[in-house]
Amino acid sequence: MSLQFTLAPEPELEAREKGRLLFAGPVDFVKGVVAMSGLPEPDRLEVCFAGRSNVGKSSLINALTGRKSLARASNTPGRTQEINYFALGEMNRFLVDLPGYGYAEAPKPIVAKWQALLKSYLAGRQTLRRAFVLVDTRHGVKPVDEEIMSLLDRSAVTFQVVMTKADKVSKIERDANIALSIEALKKHPAAYPELVLTSSEKGDGIETLRAIIATLV
After folding, report:
1. H/E element holding 179?
2. What pLDDT shows up at residue 197?
3. Which one of 35, 45, 81, 111 has the lowest number of neighbouring Cβ atoms within 10 Å?
4. What pLDDT is recorded for position 1?
5. 195: helix, strand or coil
6. What is the pLDDT of residue 113?
7. How far apart are CA 41 and CA 9, in angstroms?
């Protein structure tokens, strides 16, 4: 029986409070990693955020953490080439900001290097509990997103799609692109069946995403 994909519901009060507390605590930059050998000790659960160029990943992480410049947004695609680790709360979670993918402007050797790092991390990090794959609501799932999803399928890493910039499109266009994204996800066995609809500017979906991260075990 196939999974029924849908938008994530509003979190229960207890889950919402756990999310609030997790992100109300300290959020500290730990390190930027350029090779697998530099990864922190795998001593706690971690979640990662992956997304292609201009999907709004830095803005979403900043909205989640309530910090305006925790994750650095860049006007130059491909500038962030490290796996950036942040410790959440009382050091009981890692939030991991992955290097972007799908850049056309960066030099090919640089792209190849950080794509290899990205794939090694996703395939080999045992404490990675969930990957959040960001998809621009204006465009839906692109072929380059499907590549990452297929890698996560092969690595048996559960991933959940987070639709970004939901405030930038009309309701008709938004609903159409959500429906198309759901159709794309049905091909991926590692896909979690609930999508999270977000707007970093308006705060939509932020509480839901916080609650999801806080209640993972």
Report:
1. helix 171-185
2. 97
3. 35
4. 47
5. strand
6. 79
7. 34
The secondary structure of 29-69 as a DSSP string is: EEEEESSGGGPPP--SEEEEEEEBTTS-HHHHHHHHHT-SS
**Distance (Å, whole) CA 187 – CA 179:** 14
Tokens of 194: 């609930």
Strand order in the sheet with 83-88: 6-7, 194-197, 159-164, 128-136, 45-51, 93-97, 83-88, 27-33
Q: Which two tokens stand for residue 212?
A: 């999801």
| pLDDT for the residue 53 | 79
Read off the tokens for 160: 């959940």
Confidence at residue 192, expressed as pLDDT on a 0 to 100 scale: 97
**Consecutive sets of 10 residues in the chain, 217 residues long: mean pLDDT of each?**
85 96 90 91 94 90 86 54 85 87 70 80 90 96 91 92 96 96 96 97 96 94
Domain range 6-215, CATH class:
alpha beta
Other CB atoms within 10 Å distance of the CB of residue 109: 7
Q: Which token pair is 8?
A: 């994530």
The two three-digit tokens of residue 185, written as one number: 């996800």
Side chain identity at 18, as an amino acid letter? K
- What are the residue boundaries of the structural domains of the chain, listed by start? 6-215
How far apart, in whole angstroms, are the C-alpha atoms of residue 184 and residue 131?
17
